[in-house]
């Protein structure tokens, strides 16, 4: 692919390396971040968007590795990352910071403690907004100016106008269709480049298990990869909820299986988390078949 955009040399080098997934240095950077992409396009597109100063929205099922993907991008760009975990309780203080009493030269003064948004903007670093569609619709418009070309915000607690320093980037993640989530309004969604993050499968999943768990037995890793694929297919067929196919939960089961029997590890890490007995029984039966 011919790159006609005048990107910094460091980013061009990163993009070129991303096209050579077998490059040893690149693989080490990926593993340090903890996310192994299912294909290089996923990584190349995310790097391209961030290097152009665009916000990216990672969309995918729970446990697919969206947070790890964000951490890997932060690592590749050598950028620290401040995080916001959205919920219905998210408010302006959770985003911007808060005032508190402090002492200076023996006198009581009011001091402002910066939150993740102001810290990332002032530091010129990454901001990660997790489960952005869990926040109340009236909360997020506060940061609309942060997410568009202006890259500015008026701090409601100090009336200071903050303009993001160079290097500031926003990565958000979304789980669609979950209880408590709300659809993103068009004004907010249009401020992002959307990147669909699928479940890891096949060799990529096996490599993730080898590098991120205590399980190193090749046959056991193959069985867990097959088990994961069967769970994913069951999710696609509507037989299981997305929670059942969480890669995060699968890695927990792999770790436990080093000490306890694999079937019991699957019950503890995956099956018993599910709400419906029908789903728990499905997972237990699948584990019995394979292990």
Automatic annotation (TrEMBL):
<feature type="domain" description="AAA+ ATPase">
    <location>
        <begin position="52"/>
        <end position="280"/>
    </location>
</feature>
<protein>
    <submittedName>
        <fullName>AAA family ATPase</fullName>
    </submittedName>
</protein>
<dbReference type="InterPro" id="IPR027417">
    <property type="entry name" value="P-loop_NTPase"/>
</dbReference>
<dbReference type="InterPro" id="IPR050764">
    <property type="entry name" value="CbbQ/NirQ/NorQ/GpvN"/>
</dbReference>
<dbReference type="Pfam" id="PF07728">
    <property type="entry name" value="AAA_5"/>
</dbReference>
<dbReference type="InterPro" id="IPR003593">
    <property type="entry name" value="AAA+_ATPase"/>
</dbReference>
<dbReference type="InterPro" id="IPR011704">
    <property type="entry name" value="ATPase_dyneun-rel_AAA"/>
</dbReference>
């Amino acid at each position: 692919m011919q790159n006609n955009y005048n990107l910094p040399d460091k980013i061009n080098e990163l993009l070129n390396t991303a096209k050579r997934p077998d490059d040893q240095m690149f693989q080490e950077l990926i593993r340090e971040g903890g996310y192994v992409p299912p294909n290089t396009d996923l990584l190349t597109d995310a790097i391209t968007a961030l290097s152009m100063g665009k916000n990216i929205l990672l969309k995918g099922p729970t446990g697919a590795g969206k947070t790890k993907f964000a951490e890997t991008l932060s690592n590749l760009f050598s950028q620290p990352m401040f995080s916001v975990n959205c919920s219905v309780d998210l408010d302006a203080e959770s985003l911007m910071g808060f005032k508190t009493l402090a002492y200076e030269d023996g006198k009581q003064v009011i001091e402002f403690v910066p939150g993740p948004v102001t810290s990332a903007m002032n530091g010129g670093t990454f901001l990660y907004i997790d489960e952005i569609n869990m926040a109340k619709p009236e909360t997020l418009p506060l940061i609309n100016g942060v997410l568009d070309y202006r890259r500015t915000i008026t701090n409601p607690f100090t009336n200071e106008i903050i303009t993001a320093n160079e290097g500031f980037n926003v990565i958000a993640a979304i789980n669609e269709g979950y209880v408590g989530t709300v659809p993103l309004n068009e004004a907010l969604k249009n401020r992002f480049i959307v990147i669909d993050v699928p479940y890891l499968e096949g060799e990529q999943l096996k490599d993730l298990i080898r590098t991120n768990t205590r399980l190193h037995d090749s046959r056991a890793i193959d069985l867990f990869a097959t088990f994961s694929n069967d769970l994913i297919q069951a999710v696609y067929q509507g037989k299981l909820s997305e929670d059942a196919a969480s890669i995060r939960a699968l890695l927990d089961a792999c770790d436990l299986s080093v000490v306890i029997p694999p079937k019991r590890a699957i019950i503890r890490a995956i099956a018993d988390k599910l709400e419906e007995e029908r789903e728990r029984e499905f997972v237990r039966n699948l584990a019995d078949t394979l292990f």
